[in-house]
Amino acid sequence: MLQETARRLDGTAEQAPALIVCNEEHRFLVAEQLRQIDRVPRDILLEPFGRNTAPALTLAALAIATHEPDAVILVMPADHVVGDRSAFHVAVQKGREAALTGRLVTFGIVPTSPETGYGYIRKGPMRAPDGVYAVDRFVEKPNTATARTYLESGEYLWNSGIFMMTAARWLEELRRFRPEITDTCAAAWREGKRDTDFFRIGKEAFGRCPSDSIDYAVMERTDNAVVIPLDAGWSDIGSWLSLWEVNPHDADGNVLRGDAIATDTRNILLIAQHRLVAVVGLQDIIVVETADAVLVAHKDHAQQVKDIVAELKNNKRSEHLVHRRVHRPWGHYDCVDAGERFQVKNITVNPGAALSLQMHHHRAEHWIVVNGTARVTRGDEVFLLHENQSAYIPIGMKHRLENPAATPLEMIEVQSGGYLGEDDIVRFDDVYNRQ
Fold it and tell me: Would the CA dihedral through 188, 189, 191, 197 be positive or negative?
């Protein structure tokens, strides 16, 4: 979905390199997703912690306004689906024209049902250009009866959370209504530091920033807000149920992904990522199998997944924090198996990438090349390994793994020792500036 969002303006005059704002914990995942589609971002800004959408947009506006204060920003969350890209492009062009006149633009989704999971926007009078309306008011998520009256009136749109404005205009309006956000974000920006492909926001100043949304901070207060109706097959993928709704169904209403079999089954979402999953005689359920866990839920209770996450936290389990696949700046690894004194990883190193020069106090490692070529530093030795060749790294030995080739390097790493935690790493040199 991040990749689709980055490509959403392809083929338009508005197309430009994306500027990504994300949590620092997601930096390698984001960078890898963009690398896979050959996209070089304008920048990737790293928040040390979340402060909602208004500070995130402010950081982006500060980054852009430094060089292009009148540049138009299109703000797109990375968890949306837009089925009709052409219709989206037409709406964006209208939004750009309005933004260049100093308006703060939001896009309202033409409703298709009395949805209670979205906020609404009531349209005001038409503003130039055609198809652009003043915002009469924003409305919180309604109950079913109220949502039905909104739908029947034709005056209301779903609040999409997509916005357009110039960088300077956003900063001006935010200072008018929430100067404390402007000031703390500006201080965090000044404290920020470049970290290879990323820009780290200053943690101390950003910690003082209030948490607020774009809507609450500015859009609901300004008299310069306009809304453009958008009918482009939009969906906010906020639950497993919404994922079932937007995907193609088979004749029985099922959405099946991966190695999945469904017999005498109707209206289910079945995602199998790592093994065969078979379902017999069920209806209206969600089954999601991953390397970390398996979820089975009735569609009517899809939103209660958050209760499971809360229980994981209360029980001090690690599944909500650590996944079997772990992304690193050089690639990723999967923990295939683990026991009391051993761990097996499947490691993929991107072309031209290198792990840090490091040493472990408590574990030895055995590397076996599955595909590609590895350059191994082991003590004073430097040598190449090819497919089916291996190397042993004793406890306490300085070592480094590199991929000198133009194709991914895939390896199996077998660790053995009394302690196998990821914090048993002493780094002597690292191209990614990790400690």
Answer: positive
